[in-house]
Amino acid sequence: MKTILVANQKGGCGKTLTAISLASALAQKGYRVALADADNQKSSMHWLKQRPQTAAPIASLDWRHEKSIGDAPKNIEYLIIDAPGALSGEHAEQLVSEAHAIITPLQPSFFDIDSTRRFLKHLQDIKRIRKGKVQILLLANRVKPNGINSKEMQDFFAKVEQAPVAWISERSAYGQLAMQGLSIFDKTQKNFVEIQKQWQPVLQAVIEDPSEWF
């Protein structure tokens, strides 16, 4: 089982939408997927409760309490963890100890830059990360049209000192579908497939699957 932790101490950066997008992408591909919610807001679990039975199945895990961390069905191939915003101390170490990769979504704002820099510095204090056993990927999230080529965005990641693995555009479809327990990967129409393609670099970075996704 490969475990992917979606985390950033900055609230509102799109952790849950990132987690549910990855989980549904893998489920649609035919993998056995579980989504573990470690956040007291229970956003991922609420999303899964709304998910239609006709959609690709995703197992729901409640990891809000430290004693439950690590509990997962043995047949799961990929586990996505939706981390809490206040990720620190022993709780952080427990979640990181389960992860093979950490995806950190962030938006192009001063507050995201500052918070993410401190979060990445904090991660370096965790022994498993210092030893290079966990892959850390930044995800430029909710990027406005034409934002990728702007000088502000380029300076943004220069300050963070790490290029993003992918640029995800701001789209109303994410929120609209989430209300139905769905994601963009549950749709096959051409306009949704074009949005899905933005996630290809993320999937290629963390999933060992050379076949075409879209």
TrEMBL record:
InterPro entries: CobQ/CobB/MinD/ParA_Nub-bd_dom (IPR002586), DNA_Partitioning_ATPase (IPR050678), P-loop_NTPase (IPR027417). It comes from the Bacteria. Residues 4-180 form the CobQ/CobB/MinD/ParA nucleotide binding domain. PANTHER family: COBQ_COBB_MIND_PARA NUCLEOTIDE BINDING DOMAIN-CONTAINING PROTEIN, P-LOOP CONTAINING NUCLEOSIDE TRIPHOSPHATE HYDROLASE. This is AAA family ATPase. The lineage of its organism: Bacteria, Pseudomonadati, Pseudomonadota, Gammaproteobacteria, Moraxellales.
